[in-house]
Amino acid sequence: MVKLTFYGGVGEIGGNKILLEDDKGKLFLDFGYPYSKYRVFYEEYLKPRPGAGLLDLLVMGLLPQLEGIYRTDLETENLWQQFRRAEHYRKLEDIDGILLTHAHLDHSGHICFLREDISVYATATTAFIAKAVQDSGTSAFDQQVCYFTPRVEECLKGWKQGAYVASSSGDRQRRFCVADKLELSEEAGNFWEKATRRKKLASQLLGDISKCSFNLRCFPVDHSIPGACSWGVETSSGWVIYSGDLRLHGRHGKLTESMIKEAAQLHPRALILEGTNVDKAANVSEQEVYENAFKAINDASGLVIADFPPRDVNRLLTFLQVARDTKRKLTILPRDAYLLKTMRLLESEIPDIAQEDAIVIYQETTASKTPALWLRNIYQDYSSKIVLAKDVRSNQGDFILCFSFWDLNELPSIQPRTGSLYVFSSSEPHNEEQEMDFWRLHHWLEHFQLRAYGLPLYRNGIWEIPEEEKGLHASGHACGPDLLRIAREIQPEVLIPVHSEKPEFYVDNLSDSGINVILPTEYGTVEI
Ligand SMILES: [Zn+2]
Q: 233 alpha carbon to ligand 1 midpoint, in Å?
């Protein structure tokens, strides 16, 4: 008998935390950051208190009340006493590991709270992206996926109570066990083991997945971040397949096709399948994005700004091709350069920035006396590739700037000419906070008199991209008909939808398929 308990990813898009247990052992399928649960209580200036360790997260229902799986440096005194009578409290020990599907935080973010001796199983690319994102990001207390800063309780002189503060002893890396590419080049090994932020790093060598108590299969799939995979776990009830996030219409859709074939051959007992875009009837392909972006940018005369999702390397490569074909320079930010450089350590088809004529790197205004090592290295390694705001300002027609809303702060230095083009290649706002940012984005464009293309407008109570400007964004998720095809071709005995706001879609559309669709409930257990 296998038990699947759903601690996240039910009725919400993201935050997947699924516990799989049978007599062989226990695994979590992803351990994601539950954005929608955070939004219920928190916002930018009201966040769980890092100084309170795990307390806020457990009390506010952001983390499952599972004693024994979390970092002990975050356990305040007598922490668990208050939860032992709670409905969903459980003591949980001997976790074999986390099967991580990809490096989006809604799947990986809360790994930061887990005990460091719990292995994270992933592809090498996912492990490397997790590190690159953390190296070059803000590394907030609740998003330290690859390594973390242990906390110690300290009481300031004159204070009556202590709090949990980041220790000065350095960062500690988690154990990542990769399903592929164990042999790393020296350069790749260096990247993994070296600290590039301000703290030193106690690193752990990459392990492999063979030590897991379960027989595992890792199937690479296509998604809007490189390195994504689905997992297969051989349990006492048969194979359980967990899709993670996937699509068939992207640049590497063939990977997902292979996963479908190989998973079907295992005659799985259960398929846990994502359903983000169940209500979409069709997809825009990455090739269409290229064609539409090319048309818009080829006709533009002044500066072009391209706004696309962070870490979507495929989209970056699409705009790189547009840049080559329109004789412009794709102007990327240092963090994108760092990600490309990191990915090239594992995948030789990723372009080498130093050799690629159509890429330059934008040097942001840095107001720090001690910028992090990764940033200094990027500026040093590619010093001939650096462009400044004044270079862009004086030759606006030569560039495609890869900026998102969060980078618009540079515009006062760049002074884009009236009529410059803002190409929006991302998705519509999904919540009120994002809507506020869309209003602000519109205000920025009006202020600098930029022309928007593909940008959602607010009309009749909804945000929508004008009909004639659609086709600039290929979603990371398969549409409804593709998801049904995946389910029918894998033909599991049981299908459990997750990562969806409309899981009934599968009940309604698979009634003739012989597949038993079971809708999970939050904290509920499905026995298979
Ligand atoms: Zn994702």
A: 20
